[in-house]
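quick q for whoever's on today - can somebody do inverse folding on this one?? i tried earlier but teh output was garbage lol. tokens:
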């Protein structure tokens, strides 16, 4: 696991150190503490920062983003079922998740969807797409080792 100092993760994500600190204080980011109590950030932090920035572009509030990230964390823990994240990743599993998202998007686009149903579905799709995005990133990381 690669660990980054606040300035390094900020530079890699294209945000300021102040932004990383602010998101950390809001609970959007979870640094790892060293024995000397320094904050270090991981590759997951970079993915979370990309998700946060994407959701901000989609006009989500920081509170809504926090709710989505918490739901994403819960979804990942439930999906993992005690199994290490890397062990549960499979191409077929990713295809099933993608097909489910496509089905839900089609439902969202249909004329019969109410505003309330659309909002619930949007939340569910956002959480699932974030989990799928992370799974794909982890899978690509695993595969890239063999391609070198």
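ok took a stab at it. sequence:
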């Amino acid at each position: 696991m690669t660990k980054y100092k606040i300035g390094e993760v900020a530079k890699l994500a294209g945000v300021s150190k102040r932004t990383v600190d602010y998101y950390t204080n809001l609970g959007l980011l979870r640094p790892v503490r060293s024995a000397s109590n320094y904050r270090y950030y991981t590759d997951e932090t970079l993915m979370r920062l990309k998700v946060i920035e994407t959701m901000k572009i989609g006009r989500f509030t920081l509170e809504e983003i926090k709710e989505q990230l918490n739901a994403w964390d819960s979804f990942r823990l439930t999906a993992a079922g005690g199994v290490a994240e890397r062990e549960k990743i499979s191409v077929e599993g990713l295809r099933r998740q993608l097909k489910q998202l496509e089905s839900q998007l089609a439902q969202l686009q249909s004329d019969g969807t109410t505003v309330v149903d659309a909002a619930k579905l949007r939340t569910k799709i956002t959480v699932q797409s974030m989990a799928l995005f992370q799974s794909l990133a982890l899978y690509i990381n695993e595969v890239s080792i063999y391609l070198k």
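fwiw Residues 60-148 form one domain. also The helical segments are 6-13, 17-26, 43-57, 62-80, 85-88, 91-109, 115-147. so keep that in mind when u check it
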